[in-house]
Design the sequence.
């Protein structure tokens, strides 16, 4: 049983400053559950589906992986294998069922990864920036948390006696994974070091603490986020001389030590580098905590293959540990840095992340059976990412379009982003990108979609006028 859900995100020019509210009934979790059941019943009447009861569930979440990203990643995968690319199949393309999913938050037309994670993990739409709480909880207002908590499929699976796991290329307490176990009105409360005193005094807990306290027996946890687990100013084990990677906790707690002490008699293992991970014998490990970076894991293209595991390697170990449970397992796998690459306008980094997630999906398929495992591949939102320019078959996905712009008779990249700071000007005109190394990992593709020559030097309200830039970061 395999399902691919692709995300369509409409990028519209927003006019006006009004912020209309949403219907009061959307604050009630039962509203969303009843709607979901009606949708499922309608779908079941239309198709002869595999209705076996799944013993195992693997949810692959490509953060920010909209339809243009999927298409571009498909081409890149083929080109990395020496093909033209367009004819290639991603692993998700081989799945028997494909669907489209629309995403929004209860208070946002364009959603973020926190509210969407609450939706697909807990079955309840929520406000932007909140995790594991319903829409009655207000972002950053601690006193709106209590009574509005909602639980996730990871908790449901654990309560049913299944093994559960989280694997991500971001921090394990980042927006997507945190909705699996936390109830927090602010997605950025990674540790108590990021929380205001008022929230702490009101009894709200940081997300790192909730990871180990709310569901204390999560079987597999892998990703980044080490610094949020250690007392403030504690040097990092991998970067002891770099203070920006020091611990951030104000409460003085060492959450890693607390976990290892609790799991020492339960065949638990803590690892912080690739070597220790791949040397594990999954048959001898029942609980695994892997924190491989102080923050997010490095991009696949920039990964140190000696010290940092790939997403595929983490998934491989996770499934081998979880599948030992005769009752089955639930595993959340996030390709989280697809989103980060797109935020920075660096398509090469984003697309290689998507291809790596495809490898992880392939590996998971080899380790499981379609007869008892439901595998779902989806995204939480898209980006203002596209590509065009009438490129020829086999043209590098990162290359130039074959024709010149009819505005300034200069070349342009086929990859486009509909946001950014405006043109990069050279001597008062748009840069000639044919002189730029567009194969660079750090190249940020920002190409103008709406050309307003007299205002090239700045971003206009309500427009998407931008050009290819190097090293810019936009969110």
Sequence:
């Amino acid at each position: 049983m395999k399902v691919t859900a692709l995300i369509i995100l409409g990028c519209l020019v927003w006019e006006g400053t009004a912020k209309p509210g949403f219907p009061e009934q959307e604050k009630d979790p039962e509203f969303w559950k009843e709607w979901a059941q009606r949708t499922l019943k309608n779908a079941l009447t239309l198709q002869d589906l595999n209705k076996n009861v799944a013993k195992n569930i693997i949810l692959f979440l490509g953060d920010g992986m909209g339809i243009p990203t999927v298409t571009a990643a498909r081409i890149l995968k083929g080109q990395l294998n020496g093909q033209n690319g367009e004819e290639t199949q991603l692993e998700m393309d081989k799945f028997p069922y494909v669907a489209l999913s629309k995403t929004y938050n209860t208070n946002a037309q364009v959603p973020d990864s926190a509210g969407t994670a609450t939706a697909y993990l807990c079955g309840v739409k929520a406000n932007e920036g909140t995790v594991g709480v319903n829409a009655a909880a207000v972002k950053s207002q601690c006193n709106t948390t209590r009574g509005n908590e909602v639980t996730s499929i990871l908790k449901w699976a654990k309560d049913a006696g299944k093994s559960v796991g989280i694997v991500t290329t971001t921090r394990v307490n980042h927006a997507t994974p945190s909705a699996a176990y936390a109830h927090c009105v602010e997605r950025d409360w990674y540790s108590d070091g990021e929380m205001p005193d008022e929230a702490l005094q009101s009894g709200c807990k940081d997300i790192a603490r909730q990871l180990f306290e709310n569901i204390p027996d999560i079987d597999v946890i892998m990703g980044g986020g080490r610094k949020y687990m250690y007392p403030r100013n504690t040097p990092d084990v991998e970067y002891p001389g770099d203070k920006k990677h020091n611990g951030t906790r104000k409460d003085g707690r060492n959450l890693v030590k607390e976990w290892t002490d609790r799991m020492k008699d339960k065949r638990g293992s803590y690892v912080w580098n690739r070597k220790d991970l791949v040397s594990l014998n999954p048959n001898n490990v029942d609980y695994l905590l892997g924190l491989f970076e102080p923050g997010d894991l490095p991009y696949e293209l920039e990964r140190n293959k000696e010290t940092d595991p790939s997403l595929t390697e983490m998934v491989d170990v996770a499934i081998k540990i979880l599948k030992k449970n005769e009752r089955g397992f639930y595993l959340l796998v996030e390709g989280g840095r697809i989103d980060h690459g797109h935020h920075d306008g660096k398509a090469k980094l984003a697309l290689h992340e998507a291809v790596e997630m495809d490898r992880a999906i392939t590996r998971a398929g080899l380790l499981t059976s379609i007869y008892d495992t439901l595998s779902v591949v989806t995204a939480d939102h898209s980006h203002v990412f596209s590509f065009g320019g009438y490129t020829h078959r086999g043209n590098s996905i990162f290359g130039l379009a074959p024709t010149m712009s009819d505005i300034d008779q200069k070349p342009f990249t086929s990859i486009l982003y509909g946001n950014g700071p405006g043109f990069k000007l050279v001597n008062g005109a748009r840069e000639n990108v044919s002189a730029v190394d567009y194969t660079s990992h750090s190249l940020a593709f920002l190409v103008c979609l709406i050309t307003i020559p007299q205002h090239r030097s700045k971003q206009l309200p309500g427009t998407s006028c931008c050009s290819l830039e190097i090293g810019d970061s936009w969110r």
Residues 164 and 330 are 5 Å apart (CA to CA). The two ends are 36 Å apart (CA to CA).
